[in-house]
Design a protein that fits this description.
355 residues, elongated, 11 strands
Length: 355
């Protein structure tokens, strides 16, 4: 904050330094670089009006100093005025280009934010007796969406959830996210078993892979964890396809890791064989919170290269609501990494009402 404030006052400081330098040094020395730098520094930091004022101030300061020294019409003095004036005009042009670029960037950000909301809409805070909160934090600054995904669907079989992580980045990853989320919403309504939902996602990714070229066509995959909370039962079912296991935080702060007894391949790798993904069942009592996350959380590293341990950090803690849990967890990860994420992070928390 202080660095930016100093940078914004730098044009004025440069003009002041130029006046002092020109006035107190012999005539063969010139402060032209200082005066010329003032509007150029102002160009990317100030508005068009501020840049114009900085240029006028620099040119005016040169004329005043020359007038005091009585050298207004000397060749070197005229050259200095022309140089500073040229720099001021260039600064105005630079400012115009920068402002147009900022406007385009703002438009791109709006489009990206709209795309995120379209592909990963924010779930309702209350769904079928559950409190729900979701969060997506991109590793790249100003990015809104990448290869992580989440979705919540209220269906005849209960509330079903998915959190996943698509291999790769860029538009192919975003397209895969859209494929997985769309297939999940359809399958969640139609498949009576959670394993069937996972198989539908597998087939959707296989079909999408045949339409892609390059590495993504043969090496594309998505790790995912699916959960189901059936109506009228203190129960949660989990199917894990190569993803970090969900965490179940009980009302008293005790924590359970919902790990499967055997590993299942990620979605999109069925051609390699492997066993079907087992279903994990556990109690989901009232007041408990289920947390699904991507490896952007569990593989966040500190300066020494040590991973963040979400289970260790959450154990023994109690939170008022899922949103409070996600906020505290996100802040803890930022502290652990020094504020720098190396991978996108998707978080989805669901809590059963205590009454």
């Amino acid at each position: 904050m202080w660095a930016r404030a100093f940078a914004r006052t730098l044009p004025l400081l440069l003009v002041a330094a130029g006046i002092v330098y020109d006035y107190f040094t012999p005539s063969e020395y010139t402060a032209t670089p200082l005066f010329a730098a003032a509007p150029l520094v102002a160009a990317p930091l100030h508005s068009l009006r501020g840049t114009v004022l900085a240029g006028l101030l620099a040119v005016g300061a040169v004329l005043v100093v020359h007038g005091v020294l009585g050298i207004v019409l000397q060749v070197d003095a005229v050259t200095e005025v022309v140089t500073v004036t040229t720099a001021a005009v260039l600064a105005v042009l630079i400012n115009t280009v920068v402002r147009r670029g900022d406007e385009r960037l703002a438009t791109v950000r709006e489009i990206a934010e709209f795309a995120q909301r379209a592909v990963l809409p924010e779930p309702e805070p209350r769904i079928a007796g559950l409190e729900v909160a979701a969060r997506y934090e991109a590793a790249q600054e100003d990015a809104f969406i990448g290869g992580d995904l989440y979705a919540v669907q209220d269906c005849p079989y209960g509330v079903r959830l998915v959190v996943g992580d698509v291999r790769g980045k860029g538009m192919n990853a975003v397209a895969t996210v859209a494929t997985v989320v769309g297939a999940f919403r359809e399958a969640a309504e139609q498949e009576p078993a959670l394993e069937g939902v996972a198989e539908r996602l597998e087939r959707a990714l296989t079909r999408a892979g045949t339409r892609r070229d390059g590495v993504d066509a043969v090496e594309g995959f998505t790790t995912a964890v699916l959960a189901e909370i059936p109506p009228g039962a203190d129960l949660v079912r989990v199917v894990n396809r190569g993803h970090p296991p969900p965490l179940l935080l009980h009302p008293d702060g005790t924590l359970a890791v919902l790990s499967a007894a055997s590993f299942a391949l990620p979605l999109g790798m069925s051609d390699l064989g492997g066993r079907p993904a087992p279903t994990v069942r556990d109690r989901f009592p009232r007041g408990a919170t289920l947390l699904l996350h991507t490896d952007g959380l569990s593989e966040a590293r500190d300066a020494r290269g040590e991973f963040f341990d979400p289970a260790g950090w959450l154990a023994g803690r109690v939170f008022s609501c899922p949103e409070a849990l996600l906020t505290a967890l996100s802040e803890a990860v930022r502290r652990h990494t020094g504020g720098v994420l190396t991978d996108d992070m998707a978080l989805l928390a669901v809590r059963r009402h205590e009454q």
